[in-house]
Amino acid sequence: MKNHTKKVLLGAATLAALGAVGGDAQAADTTAVNIKARVVNAISITQTKTLQFGSLTETGAGTLAVSVGDVATPSGTITLIGATTPAAGGFQIKGGTGVAFDVSVAAATATLNAGTKTMKVDTFLLAKPGPAATATKLAAITITANTVSAYRIGGTLHIGAGQASGNYTGTIVLNAAYN
Description:
single chain, 3-stranded antiparallel β-sheet, 46% strand, 8-stranded antiparallel β-sheet, 11 strands, mainly beta
């Protein structure tokens, strides 16, 4: 009986070895995985037009709002004078076609200076091309060609009572970033 068991075990081991070498069972497989990358142009934002509040006079405190549609609305005792017409600022964005981005105003306020004299600008509004939608942030805009232009920015200038005369200047930072 012992000899018979040895023969059966030897026969089973031989079959197993032959099956491992030339059998139909597949214990492993391989595949190729494609790899892709898309490089798009860096996003850039460029000013095309200055946010202009024009020339004004005051006999007390007030504000001057300039809309993204170039409409100037004075309040308080503010009077527009001179040939400089208030107008919304403008900017354009360049980037990769078909890529979405956001545009936002970096700060809630900006300070205009004339030497040591200051005025504040706030309530910034942005508008994209097309229907006059305005917001402080424009989100998920998709670049359909390599240039998106005609974006607008408006805001409200605060003039103090007895505001000193001068040519006031300042800046507001806009951020543009891919989503």
